[in-house]
Amino acid sequence: MQEFLLAAAGGVMVANAYYIHPIISEVADGFEVSAATIGLVPALNQIALALGIFLLLPLGDRYSNRRLSIIFAIGQTLALCAMALSKSFWLFLFGSTILGFLTIAPYLLPAYASKRVSGERLGSMTATLTAGTIFGILLARTGAGFIAQQFDWHLVYVIAAILMVLTTLTLPLIMQGRRPRADTGPKSNYITLVMSLFPLLRAHPQVVVSGIIQALNFGIFLSIWLGLALHLTSAEMGYGTDTVGYLAGFAVVALFATPRLGAWADKVGASKARFRLAVVQMAGVALLWPFGDSLWLLIIPIVIMNTVGPAIDVTGRMTTLELAPDIRTRLMTGYIMLMFIGAGLASWAGTAAYEFAGWPGDAALALVLSMALVALSWRQARKVALSA
C-alpha cells in the first residue's frame, strides 16, 4: 500500500510541469507571445529542474528523504501560487522556473523506496512509481485541457496549488523517517557531497549512457506534445484545448503496460529490453508526420509512444537502482539531471521547430531524436551482451 501512496504523491508533484502541455496556445494568447517564446516556459522549467537535481538531490544521501520531500513540496506550492496569480508573462515564467528547480521530491522517492524492497522486486517497484507519475501526467494534461476550455487557464494552477497542499500534508504520514545510523564517522560538507557526483559518474559510465538515452526519450515526448498542442489548436486543425487533453488521455495505456513491461525487463535484462522498446517507439514516431492531418490517425502513434516510452525510462532507472544503496541517490541525480537537460532543450526545440516548419518540422525533429535513441540503446545492449 505504501508504494501506491508514494506513487500517487509523486504523480501530483510531477504533474505540475505538464499542465502547460494542452493549454500552451491559450497561455501564449493570454500573454500575447509567440510559439517560440512560450516554449521558454517548459524549457526553463526542465533546465531548472536539472539544476535543482544537481544541487539538491544529492542531499538525499545525507539527510532524511522525508524531511527534504516536505520542504521541497512546500516550495512547489508557493511557486504554483505565483503562476496562478501572475498577470505578466515574465512572472509566470519565473514561477514556472522556480517550480522546476524545487521539483525534487518525486526523484527522492525511487531511492527511498528501493531501500525498502528486495532486489527481485526492483523493476516492479520502479514501474509502480513510474505508473503513478504517468497517472499524474495523464490527469494533468486531460484536466488542464478541459478546465482551460470551459473556464480559464489560471484556474488550472489554482487547483494544482490546492492538490500540492493536500500532498504536502500527506507526505509525513506515508514516509518513514531515516533510521539512526551507527556510523559516527565525519560527514562530508555540502560542496564535497555535490561534487562527488562527477567521480561517481566516471566510475559508472552506464549511468551516463542511460541518462543520455532517457534525455532523448523524454525529449521526444515533450517536443511532440508541445508541438501537437500548437498544431491541433491552430486555425488549420481548429480543435480546442479540451481535444488536446482528451488525446493525451490515451496515455492511460501506460498505466497497464508499464508495470508489466517493468516485470518483463526484470526477466530479460534492462539493456536488452530498452533496445527492443526503442525500436517500437521509433516505428510509432515515424507515423507522426504522415498521420498528422488526421486526429484519429494520430491516435495510433500516440498509443505506441505512450505504451513504450515510460518503460524505456524504467529500464534506464534499473541500471542505476541496482547499484550500491549508499550512492543510489547521487547516481540517480546524474541520470535525472541529464534527462532534464535534454528535455529542456527539446521543449524549446519542439516549439521552435513548429514555428519554423509547422507540424512536419516538429515530427522530423522527433524522428531524428528517436533514431539517436535506438542507436545508443543498441550500442549499450551489445556492450552488456559482450561483457556477460
TrEMBL record:
Residues 1-388 form the Major facilitator superfamily (MFS) profile domain. The chain crosses the membrane at residues 33-56, 68-85, 91-113, 125-148, 154-174, 207-232, 244-263, 331-350, 356-378. It holds the Pfam family MFS_1. Gene3D superfamilies: MFS general substrate transporter like domains. Keywords: Membrane, Transmembrane, Transmembrane helix. GO terms for molecular function: transmembrane transporter activity. It comes from the Bacteria. This is MFS transporter.
